[in-house]
Amino acid sequence: MSQVEKAQEFARLHKKGEPLILFNIWDAGSAKAVTEAGAKALATGSWSVAAANGFGDGQAIPLSLLAVTARLISVTSPLPLSVDFEGGYAVEPEEVAANVEKIMDHGAVGINFEDQVIGGEGVHPAEIQAARIRAIREMADRREMPLFINARTDLFLQESDTAHHHILLDDAYRRADAFAEAGASGFFAPGLVEPELIGALCERSPLPVNIMVRPATPDNETMAKLGVSRISYGPAPYRSVMGMLKSEAEAIYRPT
Predict the structure, then answer these.
(1) Percentage of residues in the chain with pLDDT exceeding 70?
(2) Which among 240, 255, 239, 221 is positioned nearest to 21, based on CA atoms?
């Protein structure tokens, strides 16, 4: 498939009630393994890609290295690739769009783009984040690329007490509306774990909803019934693999 065809296929895979499952990867090797396991598409996780290269999360990994990683994955696997692009490595809309274009040039057909203030506190106001999304969409349209912009809100991740998450729903609805109007393709709400709230968001959102698997989230079958269109695993696969590697190494270096 061409890059445009991959982007079109990636969008088609987002089905309410029949979610796209993304077991997040971090390099060409993990991409090959997940592809051979039967995945329909690939997505990186920012934390995992950074950690695999010796960096912390929060755009610490250089953009140039992230772009090379995307290229290596895209030439290793024939599947559509979405790149977790955090806050776009810039604040101003035009600069963000230019950075996204670099990732597109390296094979990505989708991005995660979050409203968290990288290196600061809280989230960008909805209208500012919408302007950033609009700039990305306009750039992609000029390139005739149906880029899948998965607009992520960090509202729920930044509130550790899940008992307070219902208070944030109205803000999440407003953001979903604003991001959809600006040209987003999906709405990502990591940190949201309560079934009732997930179902409410899926019912209200004008965009396909993405939920990240955490210990407290419902199982995948339940999330499908709640109307989720995309399920991702975030840093969990990387942590699992590294935990196994460390355990096996300790058995050699520190035998009991």
Answers:
(1) 100
(2) 221
pLDDT, tens only, 66-99 = 999 999 999 999 999 999 999 999 999 999 999 9
Dihedral sign for Cα atoms in the order 90, 96, 101, 107: positive
Q: How many domains does the chain have?
A: 1
Task: Give the pLDDT of residue 256.
Answer: 79
Task: Tell me how far apart the alpha carbons of residues 192 and 227 are, in angstroms, rounded to a whole number.
Answer: 14
Ranges in the chain, pLDDT < 70 = none
Of the candidates 147, 76, 159, the residue with the CA atom closest to the CA atom of residue 108 = 147
* CATH number, residue 76: 3.20.20.60
- What is the strand order of the sheet 81-84 is part of? 20-22, 230-232, 209-212, 186-188, 148-152, 110-114, 81-84, 42-43
Quote the crossing angle between the two packed helices 28-36 and 63-76, to the nearest 10°: 30
In the block, tokens 């935990």 appear at 243
User: What per-residue confidence (pLDDT) applies to 45?
Assistant: 98
Query: b/e for 5-44, b at 16 or more Cβ within 10 A?
Result: ebbeebbebbebeebbbbbbbbbbebbeebbeeebebbbb
Q: How far is 189 from 201, CA to CA, in rounded Å?
A: 9
pTM for the model stands at 0.97
Task: Note down the domain range covering 32.
Answer: 3-253
